[in-house]
Predict the 3D structure of the following.
Amino acid sequence: DTKVSQSSSSTEFKKSIITRIPEDSKNIPKHVPYLLIGGGTASFAAFRAIKSNDARAKVLVISDELAMPYMRPPLSKEIWSDTDLGLEKARFKQWNGAERSIFYEPEDFYMPIEKLEESKNGGVSVIQGYTVTKLNVNEQKVLLDDGTEITYDKCLLATGSSPKTLRIFDSASPKIKEKIFTYKSVKDFELVKKQVEKSKNVAIVGNGFLGSELACALSHYGTLNDLKVVQLFPESGNMAKVLPKYLSEWATERIRDVGVNVLPNSQIVNVELFNGNQIKLILNNGNSIIADFVIQAIGSQPNTNLAEKAALEIDQKLGGFLVNAELEARSNLYVAGDVACFYDPHLGRRRVEHHDHAVVSGRLAGENMVGLRKPYKHQSMFWSDLGTAIGYEAIGLIDSSLETVGIFAQTNSNDNKNEIKIDGENKEAHSVESGNFKKENGTDNKSESYNKGILFYMKNDRIVGILLWNVFNRISIARKILSSEEKFDDLNEVAKLFDIFEQ
Ligand code: FAD
Ligand code: NAD
Ligand code: NAD
């Protein structure tokens, strides 16, 4: 089994046959004060919080990946835009031009596992390529896949989520399966990179965050490297679960503008091998697509398989381990990140699959593991960038099944600045500023209207979520509005707080 592992530098990858580090588990301590299951962002945020509140803490992170803790967001975005940096060194350029590694810490930050137990000042060790197969909550003990047992004082479950797969691909022949990918990790990135280098066509299935971002990123890469991207999904537009219909369909046009061949209303009904080494996807509308390989981005499922043996409760509706507002599942057992179904005292029970939530909840869990007893209070945010015309940030409950009110900046032909307001799905647009805009039904001729604006997500006449559409550095205003618990009579006045013309 060839796996990607890290060499002496955390920014360079080398192929090797190493499957776990340390290769021999004899140096893994039998007991640790802080045990973190999963080596993702939530664990990273937790060990930071633990170390800043308990400087001499000894923390052991168990990761079933070989790479040290890293951030996933650049993998569907920036890493594809500078191939020299991205494809070779796991580095990427941020939007402000600064170069950065995807790894959270340099290799020498971590303590070699054999030194952890004896170290006077404590430290953070990561064992890589080890899976926790059993958790015994009463005895405060975990079992690893090689039979090693470790007891803990405090434990964090941060096992994240795994990509879902379509049954039609799961049951396909091995020759077809070789060309069907999911996309979650640096290892997946390496595998997809290899495919991309020898392909002319890729099909991406799914219209969510991952499918839409990756379609834009690979299309951009493809303009320089002769790769064509098709994106297909059953809904009528991109990000349909997140954006109201009119905005989702407008976003689809902008994604087409960057070269992605977006095929909405398309469901795969059959898959075949074509010409011996290509994939033919047959769609419900009778059309078919030929691709050299396929990436499925159809959502993810929380990794809760440790629940059953540990007798932990899973939320039946949202998935994930049930925890209270302090992120506690049982005594001395905390949960954070994608896999936590937590109680938000302000917005109710939630599970959130976003980077900043992993940071916020991981930090909170870490603080509570050292005994600070804090409730979930600071709302996390999320962001996405799609092609060249769309970037957005959001906070709270963002779900297109909620009622939405959108207020968009509008510059008319006389250069007058106005805002237009779009109420929910009825697509009724009217001026909120000076009456220059007539009430209109439909949005066909108003495509320029959606370049910049604020979307309010409503429940029982209260704002429960705010999405900032091409409006940046205003998330703290949104956070304040959301936490105010006020009922606002005039959302136009609320929108004005964002000063969207001043950007
Ligand atoms: P994960 O990052 O999934 O980490 C969990 C880790 O635990 C994994 O390494 C897993 O292999 C390991 N693990 C699981 N079970 C075990 C076990 N039993 N034993 C040992 N280890 C185990 N969010 C945004 O807000 N903005 C973005 O732009 C964005 N971009 C993304 C791009 C990509 C390609 C992906 C995949 C996700 C993106 N996300 C983004 C989502 C965000 O990355 C996740 O919400 C975040 O990583 C969740 O962190 P986590 O620590 O809960 O879980
Ligand atoms: P998602 O839940 O956002 O999207 C899943 C999409 O899959 C659905 O919207 C639907 O269009 C499609 N789908 C479902 N069943 C299908 C079927 N039978 N046929 C065709 N299409 C089908 O999940 P994702 O986009 O796969 O992202 C994976 C994870 O990574 C999520 O947790 C996501 O939040 C996270 N992520 C977040 C960001 C971000 O926050 N910017 C970016 C990338 C990934
Ligand atoms: P920030 O420091 O306020 O970051 C917000 C949260 O996102 C933090 O938790 C941070 O750790 C995390 N984060 C940000 N970028 C990340 C990345 N690439 N990978 C992993 N985690 C990341 O904001 P920032 O880091 O200065 O910039 C990111 C923000 O900038 C995003 O919200 C994005 O939408 C926005 N953006 C702004 C412009 C602009 O022109 N002003 C253009 C593109 C994107």
